[in-house]
Design a protein that fits this description.
- The complex is a heterodimer of chains A (604) and B (578).
- The radius of gyration of chain A is 26 Å and the shape is globular.
- Chain A has three domains: 386 residues, Alkaline Phosphatase, subunit A (3-Layer(aba) Sandwich); 87 residues, Immunoglobulin-like (Sandwich); 76 residues, Immunoglobulin-like, CATH 2.60.40.
- With 604 residues, chain A is α+β, with helices and mostly antiparallel strands.
- The two termini of chain A are 47 Å apart.
- In chain A, α4 packs across α11 and α10 packs parallel to α11.
- Chain B has a domain of 84 residues.
- In chain B, α9 packs antiparallel against α10.
- The chains are: A alpha+beta (604), B mainly alpha (578).
- At the A-B interface, α5, α8, β24 and β25 of A face α2, α6, α20, α21 and α24 of B.
């Protein structure tokens, strides 16, 4: 974002927030500087899908509309005294089951956006889910999901070119057995569902029938073992699962807590995956939403209680492990529910809903005002639209992931949406590390980074690890106070290794950078590709490789046009039927590390 | 030559434009995961079928019908499934064994705009029978066109076992195009497999002996009286008819058979046809070992020398039990399972071999007896075979309505099929190029056998290729075309696609042979319902689409859910097995 745009948006933010008169942190220049565009900035988003359509009026209760509420929904009405209060307002409160989220708000860790929907809202679960996934207009059908497009925009070549030495981890993780359309991009599935492998690691229950004791059962077991062992990301998840911890006890009998517990463990284990998606089902509360005797109890109370306690435990877990600055979570449901309750002590499909964004980085405020309810609502009355859900998506992309305005527009199907003051400024590193990277150079690891002014920094410690879990200090570079480019060389003991840059400040506090990973290719392997440009065929000679390499020739669109295997041998790949152009030859070794070579095909 | 690996081959022969496809076959047996998890011995502890070849008279439901189609054809085509409705199991097998494609596609010039055929073959016309010009690039495209015609015939199979049998014989009488490099001979070889697919085995052996592809591949074309080449003579006995074992033919028998086979040459100047050259023939008397009852094949000179082949085959086929059991075991390993224990040997192989002998080497009666038996329909015979790449990949295309460009858009259509061929190569079943004269390791390498199809290289490809076909992004086929399953058409094969329970059962029945648990089915159904619990949501979405199929939003809603469901079903390990 340009500074000019930033100021414009900041002033809008002030306007948006003055509606409630709630505090908004001042936006300083630092944040504008922080917004240098880069891929994968180490930040993590956890999407929590409330499947079925959440009843917003019984979740975030507009106490100033209580008489209208009483008229519209007396059979499910929460007693006003039971509603949990939020600091700084007496007009709005939370469902009595949501004590953990009340604490989050009152402790500055929860942002609430009122009245979230979109123009011409749809009342069908399927269609509304698709709209929330694709971020499309109500009248358009788009196959891909906004997360999928975000990943393809930020990770060049995704999903086919991953994992690779620059990014080893899954591009996104959906806990469960099914990849939702959220992570479908234009080029494929940009992420994985953990259930593909989790029965192996017992992370959660999943979708596998026991193999019978037959010839077929023998083969089934074999196929499963191979599939689990071969999953490219298995070893990364396994490492993170082994290395990660949970520092709190999560609530029991709580599906969502089970899922968030896994997410926290994987983040704690060092996985750099930028997006996690979890789901809690059952919000389609057409009947018996509350106990008739006690409206603070019942199905909806149980769901909100699970939501709140799971989020509370998750946030505490992250804080205990000092991971809270890199994670935010967001809830969403495909729609809210009707103002007027139905005769079955439930509510029918509606429109707007409140969205919660939590984490240590958020701006602790309610964005927007309570809806003004009609005095005698009918079944035809719906809540007004205050904020388009795509404003939230866009703000997360720019403010949290540091995506440029142009890329954000591209991810959001070419549209611009107004920014919202969801995040507090400046929750990141005390200074900005730009272009932090590590690469192999003359069989040494070259770690480099750039900073602007770094006068508060004492030195940069370089930490080294062979498993991305246990890091040891291998050296330090003194800060120069005026910043600039820094480099550090190291001769690693392993082919696969990891580095972190620890920024040690003059007050001796420190902050670590994201993990940088390196695959040294200077062992003994020797790859000769000849001729290049190639006309009729390509000869690939490999010497000194410790394992068979799979060879894949990709065209410019990333489609595979040729395959092969090679171990210390010469493979001839005919190319004379391929169109002229630039191709990528990918060599993948048994550890799924990929080596890329540009190949030009030019016909005589 | 077959004992030469490909690297050695290319060290010897400098590659030129004439070089055929050289994509190394992945050596699954050296795969660390296969070593670790594959069979260490044949699966001894599992429940095994005790059923026999007695004619089947049991249930004839959906499970049995898809089993028949899965094993005898490639995939489950809905038209075939529907055709079974009016047939008994026995009638169904009769139709499958007696139907053949009346007009299989010949290889055509689809490549005119990529590489003009130098014999003025018009775009879309076949080059078969046209003069040949030794231009490597044209030959390479002609080779691709033999493969694409082959794929076309598999994807457009009538309800017949024919394509399965062609694949069986390609594995049995294996030749490698990469070693021969001549598109005409490749085409004639495929034609021969088709001609004899369900014919007389002994006649087949005689014809394959004189086939140009085979004559080059196993050096028969250069076999002469001055320095006999034993290559074909050895494989004729060891791989094609008798197998290998103790107390069988001797090394000297192989030398003698090689002498019998001298003179079968190939005209490499003009016609490229087989011809008999008596001047090359060894006219001495050949006295075989006691294994062959000390048979003497009297040396013949002149044109009569060619008749020594008949005498040789008569002598070999006089070992009736050995030949018949060897072939019946191969059939069993291809269509049923690789584990042939003593019960299977006694109850299945031995009686099938008797049928083979008494039918005077006709193939059909053997297949008929096997496929009409209780053993074939035994539940323990179902769900037991790891799908080979043809069944897995091309079978999915036939089952799930994968749509290609119009066949008359020759370039687009055949280029797409050619890409599918490369993908099959990547799955380690390169049609036209088995890894060696022994065929695919999955059919002979004990104790892993079929498990060799699944290894650390192939498993992710298998998953991602189906992902591509099942989803919106599709499988790259040419620079301008992607292909994918028409999932809506697939769903419409179901009797009540609006009922999510019936639809799910339908997909499972077509795609998996294992029966899934209720829990697993509930999980899968929730995909169709996007996590909702009421069937109504899917039903309504389907009705909305049916009432207004041109509305992209209504179509998109059902498409995305069907695609997600299909993807998930095909990602199960069960989908690898039939």
């Amino acid at each position: 974002m340009k500074r000019r745009d930033f100021i414009k948006m900041a002033s809008m933010a002030t306007m948006a927030c003055s509606v409630n008169g709630l505090p908004v942190h001042a936006f300083g220049q630092e944040q504008a500087i922080n917004k240098k565009t880069r891929n994968s900035n180490g930040k993590i988003l956890v999407l929590i899908r409330l499947s079925g359509g959440n009843d917003g009026l019984n979740t975030l209760v507009p106490l100033d509309q209580y008489s209208a509420l009483s008229a519209a929904r007396s059979n499910i009405l929460l007693p006003s005294s039971s509603v949990l209060s939020l600091n700084g307002t007496s007009d709005t409160g939370l469902h009595p089951a949501m004590t953990a989220m009340q604490n989050l708000y009152n402790n500055g860790k929860l942002n609430i956006i009122q009245g979230v929907s979109y123009p011409d809202p749809n009342y069908s679960h399927f269609r509304a889910t698709d709209i929330f996934s694709s971020a499309s207009d109500s009248s358009l059908y788009i196959n891909s999901g906004w997360i999928g497009r975000f990943i393809e925009n930020q990770f060049t070549g995704a999903p086919l070119a991953y994992p690779n030495p620059t990014f080893l981890d899954p591009l996104s993780i959906e806990i469960g057995y099914q990849a939702s359309s959220l992570i479908y991009g234009n080029n494929g599935l940009n992420g994985m569902t953990v259930s593909n492998i989790d029965y192996f690691y017992n992370i959660q229950n999943n979708f596998v029938d026991p193999a019978p004791n037959t010839k077929g059962g023998n083969e089934l077991t074999y196929v499963r073992l191979i599939a689990q062992q071969t999953e490219s990301y298995t070893s990364r998840i396994q490492l993170a699962t082994q290395g990660g911890t949970n520092s709190v006890t999560y609530p029991s009998n709580n599906d969502l807590a089970d899922q968030l517990k896994i997410v926290a463990k994987l983040i704690s284990g060092g996985l750099q995956t930028p997006v996690y998606i979890v789901t809690i089902n059952g919000f389609d509360t057409h009947n018996d939403q509350v106990d008739s005797a006690d409206h603070t109890q019942g199905e909806h109370a149980s769901l909100l209680g699970k939501l709140s306690s799971a989020i509370g435990a998750f946030q505490q877990d992250l804080e205990n492990q000092s991971l809270d600055n890199k994670v935010v979570g967001m809830t969403f449901s495909e729609f809210g529910r009707r103002i007027k309750s139905n005769g079955s002590a439930g509510t029918d499909h509606g429109t707007s809903e409140p969205v919660f964004v939590f984490g240590s980085a958020v701006n602790p405020a309610i964005i927007g005002a309570n809806p003004v309810l009609p005095a005698n609502a009918t079944v035809n009355d719906d809540l007004p639209l205050q904020h388009d859900f795509r404003q939230i998506y866009s703000t997360i992309l720019t403010d949290w992931f540091g995506v440029s305005a142009a890329n954000t527009q591209a991810i959001m199907n070419g549209n611009n949406y107004n920014w919202l003051p969801i995040f507090s400024p400046n929750t990141t590193l005390p200074i900005s590390l730009f272009n932090a990277s590590v690469k192999a150079e003359h069989c040494e690891a070259l770690i480099s980074w750039e900073t602007a002014s770094d006068e508060l920094v004492e030195r940069y410690d370089i930490l080294y690890s062979v498993d991305a879990l246990a890091f040891e200090k291998i050296g330090a570079v003194e800060a120069r106070s005026n910043g600039g480019m820094y480099t550090f060389k190291h001769n690693p003991s392993h082919d696969l290794c990891y580095y972190k840059i620890r920024i040690v400040q003059k007050d001796s506090t420190y902050v670590d950078s994201a993990i940088l990973s390196l695959r040294m290719f200077c062992d003994t392997r020797d790859v000769l590709i000849y001729p290049n440009p190639a006309d009729t065929q390509l000869s690939i000679t490999i010497r000194g490789s410790s394992s068979a390499l799979s060879l894949t020739l990709l065209n410019i669109e990333g489609a595979v046009v040729r395959y092969g295997m090679n171990q210390n041998d010469t493979t001839l790949i005919p190319v004379y039927d391929l169109p002229e152009g630039v191709y990528t030859l990918v060599l993948t070794d048994k550890e799924y590390f990929k080596e890329f070579h540009k190949v030009v095909i030019k016909h005589a | 030559m077959p004992h030469l690996n490909r690297a050695e081959f290319f060290d010897k022969f400098i590659p030129s434009k004439n070089t055929p496809v050289i994509i190394k076959t992945y050596d699954a047996s050296q795969d660390e995961l296969v070593k670790k998890y594959g069979n260490k011995s044949l699966p001894l502890q599992v429940k095994k079928s005790r059923s026999t070849l007695s004619p089947y008279a049991g249930p004839w439901g959906e499970k049995q019908k898809v089993h028949v189609l899965r094993r005898l054809t490639v995939g489950v085509k809905n038209t075939h499934y529907n055709a079974l409705a009016s047939l008994t199991p026995s009638q169904a097998i009769d139709v499958l064994l007696n139907t053949s494609n009346p007009s299989p596609l010949l290889p055509i010039n689809y490549y005119q705009n990529l590489q003009a055929d130098n014999q003025s073959i018009a775009y879309g016309q076949t080059w078969v029978g046209a003069p040949y010009n030794n231009d490597g690039t044209v030959n390479y495209y002609r080779y691709l066109s033999v493969r694409t015609a082959w794929f076309h015939n598999i994807l457009n199979q009538p309800m017949s076992i024919e394509e399965k049998m062609i694949a069986f014989w390609h594995n049995h009488f294996a030749t490698q195009y990469a070693m021969v490099g001549d598109a005409r001979l490749f085409h004639e070889y495929v034609l021969l497999l088709r001609q004899h697919a369900l014919g007389n085995f002994k006649t087949f052996v005689k014809d394959i002996t004189k086939n140009g592809m085979m004559l080059i591949y196993l050096n028969g074309a250069w076999n002469n009286q001055w320095s006999p080449d034993e290559n074909y003579a050895r494989e004729l006995q060891e791989l094609f008819t008798l197998g290998k074992g103790p107390n069988m033919y001797t090394e000297n028998d192989i030398k003698l058979a090689a002498k019998v086979l001298t003179g079968f040459r190939l005209d490499t100047n003009t016609s490229y046809n087989y011809f008999y050259d008596s001047s090359w023939h060894d006219t001495s008397n050949k006295v075989f070992s006691s294994f062959y009852n000390s048979t003497t094949i009297v040396g013949q000179s002149g044109a009569a020398g060619e008749t020594e082949l008949d005498a040789l085959l008569t002598m070999i086929f006089a070992k009736t039990n050995i030949v018949a059991k060897f072939i019946c075991r191969k059939i069993y390993r291809f269509f049923m399972h690789y584990d042939i224990d003593s019960d299977i040997e006694t109850n299945i192989i031995t009686p099938l071999a008797q049928t083979f002998i008494s039918s005077n080497w006709e193939i059909k009666p053997v297949l008929e007896q096997l496929f009409k038996s209780y053993h074939f329909f035994d539940p323990l015979s179902m769900d037991s075979v790891i799908r080979n790449p043809m069944d897995f990949y091309l079978g999915f295309m036939n089952t799930a309505h994968v749509e290609f460009p119009a066949t008359t858009s020759y370039e687009d259509y055949h280029w797409s099929l050619s890409t599918m061929g490369y993908l099959m190569d990547g799955l380690a079943m390169s049609i036209g190029d088995p890894p060696s004269v022994s065929g695919w390791t999955a059919y002979y390498q004990t104790p892993q056998f079929h498990q060799l199809w699944i290894n650390s290289d192939s498993i992710t490809k298998r998953m991602s290729y189906i992902d591509n076909l099942a989803n919106a992004w599709g499988q790259w086929a040419t620079p301008t075309i992607t292909v994918r399953s028409n999932v809506i058409a697939f769903a419409q094969d179901c009797s009540s696609p609006g009922d999510p329970d019936i639809l799910l059962d339908f997909f499972l029945s077509r795609l998996l042979s294992f029966t899934l648990s209720t829990t697993s089915k509930t999980t899968l159904k929730s995909v169709l319902l996007s996590g909702q619990t009421s069937n109504y949501y899917w039903t309504q979405a389907w009705i909305n689409y049916i009432n207004d199929p041109s509305d992209p939003t209504k179509e998109g809603i059902v498409l995305s859910r069907l695609r997600a469901l299909l993807t998930l079903i095909c990602r199960t390990a069960e989908h690898q097995i039939a």
